[in-house]
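Researcher: We're teaching a course module on how sequence relates to structure. For the next exercise, students receive a sequence and then see the predicted structure as tokens, so they can try to spot secondary structure elements on their own. Here is the exercise chain.
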Amino acid sequence: MILTTTPTIEGHPIREYRGIVFGENVSGINFVKDFAAGLSNFFGGRSHSYEEELITARESAMEEMMQRAAQMGANAVVGIDIDYEMLGSDNGMMMVTVSGTAVLVD
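Model: And here is the predicted structure for the students to work with:
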């Protein structure tokens, strides 16, 4: 499956638009990761625990979107948009949503 943030795929004309597809992932951020991130914030540097959680959530949302596109008979998704949000009263949940247009290309 071809995935791109662009509206077209060079060398692959779009033959058919199948519809908009989405993928979502909501993850809880636990105390250990919060503590480790707090130390990184205090001492400086990157929070690898949050980065790993973010990568996992994004990959999961992308995989879900690809599966939904395949169910629609698409072989590519164009115009992909990725959005990240923190949820909950204490921002203890991270949500990643991806969307794009499922298409059939040559």
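Model: If you want an answer key for the exercise: The two ends are 12 Å apart (CA to CA). Residues 39-43 have pLDDT under 50 and may be disordered.
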